Structure formats: structure tokens, C-alpha cells
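seq/struct pair 1
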Amino acid sequence: MKILIVNKFLHPNGGSETYVFDIGKQLQAMGHSVEYFGMEHEGRMVGNRIGCYTDDMDFHSNKAEKLLYPFRILYSAEASRKIRKVLADFDPDVVHLNNFNFQLTPSVIYAVRKYARQKKKRIRLIYTAHDYQLVCPNHLLRIPKTGAVCTQCLGGKQWNCMKNRCIHDSRAKSLLGSLEGRLYQRLKTYRYLDAVICPSYFMEKILQQNSTLRGRTVVMHNFMGQIPAFEQEKRDYVLYFGRYSQEKGIRTLLEACRRLPKIPFVFAGKGPLEEEVNAVANVENKGFMSGRALYELIGRARFAIFPSEWYENCPYAVMEAQLCKTPMIASRLGGIPELLMEGETGLFFEAGDIGQLTECIARLWEDRELLARYTKNCGSVSFTDPQEYCEKLVDIYQEA
């Protein structure tokens, strides 16, 4: 099969890009032909035969782009024009969409359907949801100003995005986000998607609030590649690894650390709250880590913590910890409970509850017998591997 993978970023930028690169690599290993379409960037790692991409756009820093923002967020004539060139050259059987809103816009959906009609060809249009963009204009189901999780925009009520200034704390940008969400819901643009892959049952439930998506969703938890073998000797520290930001629950975790001064904590990551991380006496900041070094750090921790305060869908960190035979304390929110077995491989606490989190950490630190049982149970945990995942993906690609 010929598969065109569409994602606005074609360089390493986050979990969705890891997903895009990994499924592309696996699909190619299975004998399929894969090309990519998205924005040009100096760090671009994948592409298409004719080298056709949209211009790189950064709405946060470039003054010219800020002026063009109101026009490009709703419909990108450039993305429509350029993806048609790639379609004409590659002539795919499947177009697999990932993150496309704002920079590429749903214009790419219309371009694919128009091309298929002109060619009188059936092209399967698949979308993997990495966030809640199709039902929430700021894609996080969270009000950034207050930090509260939020479902106010569900059911076609996108104007709440403007009311709460959910995009960059700007009423104008939030209005545009509301307009974008409302426009494509009124046009029923997403009816052109043949299937929507949801990385969690929680996300499926949320996306089905958009009536256009009902009957099109399929749940496929994220895959995990093989964890490299290493000597696993547990050491005396509790680990957090990930982004240092408010929605990840960092401030809640740091307060719990202060309340437990005799317990050593190790943090691995980076982000806007790094200075606050560095200010806590019993926290050692290792900075950003990846690959084998990160897995060794995870595997040697007594246990790890995932205190996220937004509706995570299928976080890799929760899977990685268990595969490294490290129990986890995690917030009971979004798709997280689908990945961690409470009372078997870890504990849950209510997101944002400092007292509960502190209690859970102290309990697991002091009860060595309980911790040993959780650690042993992690040894029998397994998740879908890339090949198994892509075999299911191909079945979706080929559905009648």
C-alpha cells in the first residue's frame, strides 16, 4: 500500500511526532511505501519525493505570522495547494492525518477528498487523535488561566473558549479558536474521516460528543518499543520524568516533596518551571534525558510519579515506568487509569490533591513489602508493540 502520513511537524517536537516517525518506519519495514507531508523545518527528518511542504509557521514569535494568524488558522490555501501536488505525484491509497489544526488546517481534508473524486479513486482518510482538538479549541480540555480541567466546549459550545480566553490568554485568538471549532462542526467536515483512532477509551468518549464522529472511532492504546536491557539495581530515590509545566502537576508534586524532606527525589526533564524545580532542597534535577540513560534512571528508581493535571490520553511515561519494572503513583485522570493497575503496579491519587499525593508517596516509601510486590507485578506487564499496532492499523486502512 501507498500511505501518506500528514503531520504539521516533521521534526522531533513531542509525543505525536515520535508516533508519526515510528509508525512510518514500521510500515516501511512491513513492505509499504510511506511518504510525509507537513511544514518545512531545518530539523525535518522525513518527507516526500518531490520535496513539497508548507512554509514553517510560528504564531508565537514571528510578527508577520501574528498578523496572518486570523486568516491562516481557519483555512490554508498553501496547504491545500501543496498537498495536492504530493497527492498527484505519490497517488496514495491511504492518507493518515495526525496533528493538522492551525498550521495545516482542515483544508487538507478537502484537498484529499477532491483529489479522490477527480481520480475516481477510493482513498481511505484516517485520523489519529493526539489531543482533543476536534472538540476543544485549545485542544487540552483545560482552562490555562485557572488550571482547571474543563469540558465546557463539548456539545458545540465552543464560544466558552473565548469566554475563558483559553488560547494564549488572548480574547482575539480565543475567538478565532472558537470560530474554527464552530465552523468545521457546522460544515460537518470531519464526516470525511473514515476512521478516528483514539489512544484511550476516555478520549473516544470525549470525541463522541461531536455527533459527526460517532461510529467512526476505534480505540488503540499507544504502542511501546522494546526497552533496552540493563542491570536493574534499585536505588533510594523517587523519580519524576517529563515536562516541567503546570498542567503536568509539577507544582503539586513539588509541594509534596517539601512536605517529605527526608525522601530524595530525582527529576528528569525540562520546561518553564525548571527554576521552581531547582529551588526544592531534596530534589535533584538531572535535566532532559532520553534513550538508555533515561530507562536506566527509571529502572533504578524505587517508584515513579505521574501527577498530571490535564486529561492525558495515553501517556508513554506510565507505560515506560512499568516496563522498566518501576511502580508508579499517578493521578486518576483521563486515560491514565487504563494503563496502570491500581493495587497491583501502583497507586492513584486525585489530581491536584497535595495531601493525597504526599500520603501515597510516604506509604510506598515506607512499606517495602508492598513496594516489592508492585515491582514484581510490573515484570509481567506488557503493551502493544509497534508491529502488532501497525498490523491493526493496516486492517483499518483496508476496511471496506
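seq/struct pair 2
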Amino acid sequence: MASHFPLLIQGGMGIAVSDWKLARSVSVAGHLGVVSGTALDSVMVRRLQLGDPGGHTRRALAHYPVPTVADSILDRYFIEGGKPANQRFIQTPMGCIAPSGNLLNLLVASNFVEVHLAREGHSGPVGVNYMEKIQAPLLASIYGSMLAGVDYVLVGAGIPRALPGLLDRLADGLPVDMRLDVKGASGDDHHECRFDPEEAMHGAAPTLERPMFLAIVSSHILATMLATKIDVPADGFIIEAPVAGGHNAPPRGRLQLSEAGEPVYGERDVPDMAAIRDLGLPFWLAGGYDDADQVREALELGATGVQVGTPFAFCEESGFDSDVKRRVLELSSNGTATVYTDPVASPSGYPFKVTDLEGTLSDPGVYAERQRERCELGYLRTAYQKDDGRLGWRCPAEPVEDYVRKGGNDDDAIGRKCLCNALLANVGLGQVQRGGATEKALFTSGDMVAGVERFLQPGETSYTAAEVIERLVPSS
């Protein structure tokens, strides 16, 4: 494979876990640092409401190409010295098929900010990771990252067949549209998300560099389709195994659960590596790579390199709270760090790996105490078509009566967790509930969290992204 492709890709873990600080550290070392693009509008405005410690968001907004938009965001959301701890965050508008001007500005500007900060002061490559499942904000978010010069766009949790071609149009400053998946819609119904760069720029849109597009897939069948069956093919692939953290692709065929209640993966879920190699495109293997020998094995299979998430998630530069990292590393050192692949936790419908950690929503007692509240973030909502043909939105993690009123099945709400709020709580941006309690966290990691302590140097209680890289890169 071409030598200019990175050997290591740092995973796009969770909301602001793979934040600009982590991505920048990996990129400076010559590998592909990746920021998570999920919920960046909420991340940015909550950082501003906490007083923007370090001034990083304001520094990036000073470079935003539409100064009036940057000024309006600061006027609306920045709180000098930060809000009181018991005061609720001001919410961002929820995504919809026709976003308001404020939401459009927030989506584009927040993605610009995160990528700009990750690219600041060096020439290493930077990527951004999105979920295809979260469609409503996707086009505006990608454009914001392109404005900041992102080098790679990585997309999983869905079938991103339209996105390679849309990147071409966005780079040329042209309007784009993408079909929205809508429950209950027939083949004759057509709902689209649309985005016009000139509307976002409040004038003429510049010509931009078109980033590489990497599809995150779990099967050679999907990779083949995205390489050969669409007008503009993907530029490469990340082949993700079910041991990887976060959302996993569901097993192929009828869902079967183990005695512990986890999805059972079988031979049908093992990708055909020969078929993937025959596509002639660069690909990276993801899930379970934690030393140089394993990376070497991936290269011998024809891979360009590997994507690594969990070891980076618990390094010093990640967005997780330092106390959480310490607790997980202690569990790993004691041999008691475990994860559970929960088939129902995520409102998305995808299996979701949950790290067992006392005091979080992984504890059934803590989960039972949380009161379901009206959906205010809405990233994992599903669009549905009402009887009158109009579009509605529902989430199985919202109050059950609300979900059922919108046509949902109450059985689908059992065990669902509000990941939007929980994942923001993971990085110190948890909302204050209307009853006064702060949202509880829910951490995710891959199966290899059980051995993540191996990245610690003797006598140390933390490790850096550079130490992860040193352990992973094979000697020449």
C-alpha cells in the first residue's frame, strides 16, 4: 500500500473522548488522530458555558471564516467564569430535516473548532468520525470539518453509500442532499436532508480540499458494495471486529443471545480477507490490537495498518475524567475490568459495549433510579412518518408514554439508556436534570480493557498517547 497512509488510526471513541487534544497528540506523532464528530454542537456550547477553560474554543472561533457567526455564538453561550454547578446547561436546538439558522451555524462552527484545534501547530493528518445513523446533522457537520482542513472522514454505524459523492460536491461548494431513513415511509415517500454551503457561509462558498473517505464496516459484503456498486466509491475501509468498543454491528442472521444476554457472533461475521484485499483499496483492521506483533500480523494479512481505540481512550490525553481512567486502570491491574455487549442499551438498535463501573448506568440499581426525561438532545432519535405524511421523531430511551404516543412499541423501550446524556456526562459535560441530579455516566470500551494496564510503565498510574504508539509500532 501507499506509504503516505497512516499505520495507526486512533479510534473515534464516544462523544469528546477522542477530543482535539488526543487527536492532536496522535497526529503530531505521525499517525492519524481522529476527533469524534458526534454531538459537537452540544460539546462546544457546554464548554463555553463552563467558561471555556484555557480559551481554546474562543481561540478557534477567532479563525472561523464567518466572524459574525462566531460572535453570535459567543454572545449566546459563553459565560465568563462558568455557570454555577447546579444550573442547567442551555440546550442546543435538536436536529431536524430543516434546521434553524442557529443550529446550522452551531453544527458547522463546532466541527470547524474541533478539527482546527486538532490540526493546530503541526502538519500531521487529522480525521473525524461520524455515525451514519445520526443523519440529520451529518452534512453540515462534515462541511464544518472540511472548512478546517480535515484529511480523513470516517463513517460507520450504517451504510454510507451517498457520502463519497457528497464529499466531492461539498469540496466544490455545491448544495447536497441525502435521503433520510424514515420508519413507516413507503417507497413513494421521499424525505431528504439538505445542506447548502453558501447558506452556511452567508455568501460565496470556497473551494475546499476533498478529504479521504473511510467506511467503517464489519463485512466484506458491505465493503464490496461500497467499493464497486456506487458511483463514487469509498477510498478505503476500516474493518471492525465485534470486540471493538462503542457500537458494534449486529450479528448476521437471526439474533441469538448467550446465557449472559450478549449477542452471539459466528462464522458468518468473520470477513473474507481475500475478498477485501482483492478490492485494491487501503484497509485497516480494528478491534483487539494492543501490541506490535498483532500489528505486524495485520500487515501480513494485507492491511495498511490498524485502528486502535481502547488503549487511547484511557491515556492521559483522552477526554475521560482522570479519576475514571485511574479506576479502570486499577480494575484492569486487578484482573476485574469487564465489559458487557448490551443488545438493547443504545436507542440506535446497535449492540453497545458497556464498561462495568460502579456508580454508573452499567449498575442496574443506578439505572433504575434515573428518571426518564423528555428527549432534549435527540442525536439517536429515529425519524418516523405520521399518518398525515408529516415527519416525527421518537427515541426508545425517552419516557415510555411519549414513545408509545408517537407509535413506538413499549417493549422496545425496555432497557434503553439515554446515551446522549450519559456520554456527555462521561467527559464532564453532564446535564443537571430537572429534579436537580446530575446525569450519570455510561462508559464504553472494547474487550481489551481487561488488559489495558499493560500500557503502564512500572510504578506509573497513567500513560500517554505516545506510549501507546511506542508499544504498537513494529520495529523495522
